[in-house]
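Proteins fold reproducibly. Next comes an illustrative record:
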Amino acid sequence: MNLPTVLISILNWNNAEKTLACLDSLRDLACGDKSVRVMVLDNGSAQEDYLRLQDGADPTWVKVVRVEQNLGFTGGHNVSLKAGLDEGYEFVWLMNNDATVSPGALDKLLAAMRADARCGAVSPVIYPEDGVHFHDAWGCTHDWQRRTIARAPSAEASRRMHETDAERVSLVGTAILLRMQAIREVGMLDDRLFAYYDDNEICTRLARGGWRSKVVFDAGVTHGWRKVSEQPLYYFYLMFRNELLFWHTHVPAPHRKLLLLKLLNQSFFNINRLRRQGLSRQADSALLGVWDFLQRRHGAPDLKRSAPLPLRWLCGMAGVLNKKQLQAAVPAPAPVA
């Protein structure tokens, strides 16, 4: 039997040290007896960082591809997915550069794929570096009526979710292994997103194409974690814009009545939560993301602008109308010291 062929895709953007640490955890895989290749796409990093990456990556098993502008998570990994399709790979493993792979993880992921011909995506369990803040570790499902993401809070809950709701399981994109046959059918990552919500989006399209997504519980990767208040401003812009784009694109017809108004109300509520926590700049970036969604402006974030005054006024009025709910809500991020 021919061994499965795997292309491992890693993106680097001004973080060569973490990318090289990720590569170290993959060395045994790429130098072993499997048909495994590694592609690192440098997303327009500063020249110094790129040279550090190029000098540290072993060209005998790592191919470094340089692009002059940041293509984002979706655009960067789509370069690898296109190579995987063109060059006949069976699988492409999308790997965050701040993740490290546990021994045997790839073998276990491939075994799960081979055991189910309609499995289009698998993920290992995502272990946090601090060993405490598990988030998206075991997959989720989407509640289309409430427009919420139901994350499995434990391995046991995830196993039950896989048993009772197997056709709707969605995975976190930290280290997602994709079957190229499925990608040929449903398409590559949605490049409108640039970054964030790409995992929800691709798993939703896989499910609607008749493909299953699964967590492989005996495989693991370790991944960094930080508080919401420590995230860069572009995170808030992209999360709010892409949340709207995801739900507005994929909510099924029976739940689309007044959908846009419901989505905007939900966004305004969460933006006002940020303001109540003293995160005004983050709230401004999030509101700009809402505006760009309304303007159908996609792709890379441009934060050198502000949302127009009428939208800021509407968001402020929503905060006044929802004052009691905001006061009762569990705070989103902690205040900045």
In short: The chain has a mean pLDDT of 92. The longest helix spans residues 233-250. DSSP finds twelve helices and ten strands in the chain.
